[in-house]
Amino acid sequence: xxVAAAVCPCPPLLVPEVAAGAAPELDAARxxxxxxxxxxxxxxxxxxxxxxxxxxxGRGTHAExxxxxxxxxxxxxxxxxxxxxxxxxxxxxxxxxxxAAWLLTKTGWSYAPIEGLGVGEPLAAxxxxxxxxxxxxxxxxxxxxxxGDASACRTLKAPGYLDERAAPFDAEVARALGAADVxxxxxxxxxxxxxxxxxxxxxxxxLAGAAEGAGLGGQLLYEDAxxxxxxxxxAWS
Length: 237
What we know:
Layout: E1 2-8, H1 16-19, H2 27-42, E2 47-53, E3 60-62, E4 67-69, E5 78-80, H3 95-106, E6 114-119, H4 125-136, E7 142-147, H5 166-179, H6 182-186, H7 190-195, H8 201-211, E8 218-224, E9 231-236
Parallel strand pairs: 1-7, 2-6, 2-7
Antiparallel strand pairs: 1-9, 3-6, 4-5, 8-9
Helix pairs in contact: 4-8
């Protein structure tokens, strides 16, 4: 059963070395992520599953010990998902899970084994929900770290340019995450999310499936749109 979840954004800019001189601009987001991970630790899960959006090459499961890198962003920073198991990873972590690995290392996660799951943007809501249900049934106490950004269309300079639908979409997602509103997350419009470049849609719906019947409460810890992209941090317990 799902006993706790943390929802965090996944921009590489969360890693200070990547953000360089702009790093202080996301200090509040980093602090909120740390608080959300604290909720996971306090739940004492049997397993932590990290879920994030991924391109084709990064989709599927990633075992503990899988490695990622931010070298593609011009910095000499490598990360590992949890403990070094000694097994060579078949694939490197997608960026979203690499950011998660960085957050977990930064907070000193050592409370439970970790597994990663990269999900594709096209994954239908029904399938996301089924995946979440399966994850929740895998252990008596399951925790999720759910990575993903809201819309990327909040301003004229945003990656997706300005779309007037972006702010209302993000506001509804923020409300649903803050209230642990499973039904609202399951009902998110996948086509609209795609048009608004909201990478978190599929991971959030996996969370919704996992949380069915768990009776968790939510708290929204951070909501902002630096660079025109919606970043949200929430904790469920």
